[in-house]
Write a structure and sequence with these properties.
The protein has 288 residues and is mainly beta. It folds into 2 domains: 17-197, Jelly Rolls (Sandwich), CATH 2.60.120.580; 206-281, Acetamidase/Formamidase-like domains (Endonuclease I-creI). Helices cover 13% and strands 37% of the residues. It has helices at residues 222-241, 245-255, 276-281; strands at residues 9-11, 16-21, 48-53, 61-71, 74-79, 94-101, 104-106, 112-114, 118-123, 136-137, 140-141, 153-157, 163-171, 185-186, 188-197, 206-208, 212-219, 257-262, 268-275. Strand 7 and strand 8 form a beta hairpin. Helix 1 crosses helix 2. It is globular.
């Protein structure tokens, strides 16, 4: 993701867009017996885009309302040496093809998993430089957050004119942490509605859904990502609802849920969730 990528599409503020994606391997894996050496690792974690949103200017926020995620008929999982949390104890690569049948991901003859479609990579262009799609950060990117799913409003920064949104790396299901270095990786199509939000100095990336408001942070160490996500929420609570920092911290300590998004990317990602029911007592509303 970069400020000089030419837009693949230009859309009006408030427009709905359908975005087709490859899986995180750019659909290179077609067989469980495939040689890992045949993969082009320069093609990992592709993101479709970028999309230029008219009226989005630096300092604004981009609200990405995820309206639908439609999945392909088959996903893939893989792990092996130096991959994921357990990669130091694995000595060969393993590929598993995961059929999607009757609303379930068929993990094995014994286990069928409920589908939990989500977007792994989604972000806007940074103000300068280039960020690999496999890396998360304040621009979004490879956050691998299970709450970035149908119905959620993901709020991202606008660092360059048009925002330059791109997304990919869909999962049919994934656990918090993505500990083996993958979820059920899958191609698909995402429908989003895009809104520009002005004059909201919020600590993005953030998520608003029907249940909670979330702050997201990424850092080299999970401890640092957790601390940053927590502090961002405290400052947001204080700013939005005229609380002093101690009161905001106490409210968060009473109601917040600190969660791991992923621990396998170049930066680790954490999120802090606060129930909307608590925030609505303070008068919270969201325009989109």
């Amino acid at each position: 993701m970069a400020p000089d990528n030419p837009p693949a599409l230009r859309v009006a503020n408030g427009e709905t867009v359908e975005i087709a994606t490859c899986d995180c391997f750019e659909n290179q894996i077609t067989d469980e017996h495939q040689d890992f050496g045949t993969l082009d690792w320069e093609r990992i974690n592709p993101a479709t885009g970028p999309i230029y949103v008219e009226g989005a200017e630096p300092g604004d926020l981009l609200v990405v309302h995820i309206q639908d995620i439609r999945l392909a008929e088959r996903g893939v999982m893989t792990t092996g040496p130096d991959l994921g949390v357990f990669g130091d104890e694995l000595y060969s690569n393993v590929i598993r093809m995961i059929p999607i049948l009757d609303g379930k991901a068929v993990f094995s003859d014994r286990v069928q998993l409920p589908l939990r479609p989500m977007i792994g990579v989604i972000g806007t262009a940074p103000a300068e430089g280039r960020v690999a799609c496999g890396t998360p950060g304040d621009h979004g990117g490879n956050m691998d957050c299970t709450r970035i799913t149908t119905g959620a409003r993901l709020i991202l920064p606008v660092n360059v004119p048009g925002a330059l949104l791109a997304l990919g790396d869909l999962h049919a299901a994934m656990g918090d942490g993505e500990v083996a270095v993958c979820g059920v990786e899958i191609a698909g199509t995402v429908q989003v509605k895009l809104h520009v939000l002005k004059e909201r100095p919020w600590p993005v990336p953030m998520i608003v859904d029907d249940e909670a408001v979330m702050t997201i942070a990424s850092a080299e160490l999970l401890d640092d990502a957790s601390t940053l996500a927590t502090k961002r929420m405290v400052y947001w609570l204080a700013q939005e609802f005229s609380l002093d920092l101690a009161e905001a911290a106490l409210l968060l300590s009473a109601t917040g849920q600190l969660r791991v998004c992923q621990v396998v990317d170049p930066l680790k990602t954490a999120r802090m969730e606060v129930p909307r029911s608590a925030l609505e007592c303070l008068g919270f509303t969201f325009p989109y």
